[in-house]
């Protein structure tokens, strides 16, 4: 993980995040100052950012919003105070409403972003200055430590060519917290085609059935927020096992970019998961990133122990074959 340290200093009224990236300073600087790249990692995984304005000069502004799993928005802006090309910049960071007006009831912070060479990589230091202990405590209580750490730990896939970074790795999973799991797989095919494979029942039947010996039995799916969906599977041939299925509801949809659903096993009591799936295309390949939020770590560990990731890899390999035809 790139983030190496996070320090909260109530006496100095600061928080300091330190990270090391396996890329030269010029490349990391470009990631932090190019809106399209910054949007890929600045928000926490389940609250991705979208930068709609970016004027990198003293007095200039950057405006952004983050979109939650239910489509809710949290907006903010940077006012650039100082820019030292290639090495650092300082901003006044403010919470705003949906129209871009500063929310004066929330803290305003001065934030520095510094980039320095360390070997062939980059040492990144992010210091946030608060006006009071109460402001610091308020922002920390909102999840700033966890959110910033998760956000900047996404930067590896931005800094490197995706085909090079993921070649030979198959389906990868990371435990981000007691309840949050990230699954990633690079699919050789455009996002438009991968999106169709996820959302059209006749295509879902062709690939989404895990290991050989199973088949999709029933699919009900429409791309409408609030709609219910159902997918069930059954064994075929000599395969042993009982039919099973998953059902849920669509929470948020951004066609060809993001699909958020709830999920629970049919007939099982208790809470299910929230599955947040994003599609990012680069050079004709699509990076699938699935964030799974479990209600507790016991369920998380139980599901992972079933061989879920291996089953997903079998499906994804089959998906690539389907895309070629």
TrEMBL record:
In what residue span(s) does the Activator of Hsp90 ATPase homologue 1/2-like C-terminal domain sit? 22-159, 190-323
Q: Origin, by domain of life?
A: Bacteria
Organism annotation = Gulosibacter faecalis
- The name of this protein is SRPBCC domain-containing protein
- Entry-linked InterPro entries: ASHA1/2-like_C, START-like_dom_sf
| Similarity field | Belongs to the AHA1 family.
- Lineage start: Bacteria, Bacillati, Actinomycetota, Actinomycetes, Micrococcales
> Coiled-coil ranges per the record?
none
| Any Pfam family hit | AHSA1
């Amino acid at each position: 993980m790139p983030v190496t340290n996070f320090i909260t200093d109530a006496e100095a009224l600061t928080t300091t995040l330190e990270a090391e990236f396996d890329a030269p300073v010029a490349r990391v600087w470009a990631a932090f100052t190019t809106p399209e790249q910054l949007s890929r990692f600045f928000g926490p995984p389940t609250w991705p950012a979208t930068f709609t304005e970016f004027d990198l000069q003293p007095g200039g502004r950057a405006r952004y919003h983050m979109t939650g799993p239910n489509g809710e928005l949290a907006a903010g802006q940077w006012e650039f105070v100082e820019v030292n090309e290639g090495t650092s910049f300082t901003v006044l960071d403010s919470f705003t409403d949906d129209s871009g007006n500063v929310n004066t009831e929330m803290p305003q912070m001065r934030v520095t972003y510094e980039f320095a060479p360390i070997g062939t990589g980059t040492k990144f230091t992010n210091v946030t200055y608060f006006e009071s202990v109460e402001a610091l405590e308020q922002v920390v209580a909102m999840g700033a430590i966890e959110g910033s750490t998760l956000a900047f730990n996404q930067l590896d896939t931005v800094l490197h060519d995706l085909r090079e970074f993921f070649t030979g790795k198959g389906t990868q999973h990371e435990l981000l917290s007691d309840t949050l799991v990230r699954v990633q797989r690079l699919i050789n095919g455009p996002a438009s085609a991968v999106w169709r494979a996820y959302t059209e029942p006749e295509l879902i039947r062709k690939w989404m059935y895990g290991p050989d010996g199973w088949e999709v039995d029933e699919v009900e799916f429409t791309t409408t927020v609030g709609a219910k969906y159902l997918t069930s599977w059954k064994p075929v041939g000599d395969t042993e096992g009982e039919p099973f299925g998953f059902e849920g509801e669509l929470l948020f949809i951004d066609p060809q970019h993001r699909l958020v659903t709830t999920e629970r096993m049919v007939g099982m009591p208790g809470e299910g998961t929230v599955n947040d799936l994003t599609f990012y295309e680069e050079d004709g390949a699509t990076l699938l990133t699935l964030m799974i939020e479990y209600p507790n770590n016991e369920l998380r560990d139980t599901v992972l122990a079933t061989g879920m990731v291996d089953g997903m890899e079998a499906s994804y390999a089959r998906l690539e074959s389907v895309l070629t035809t």
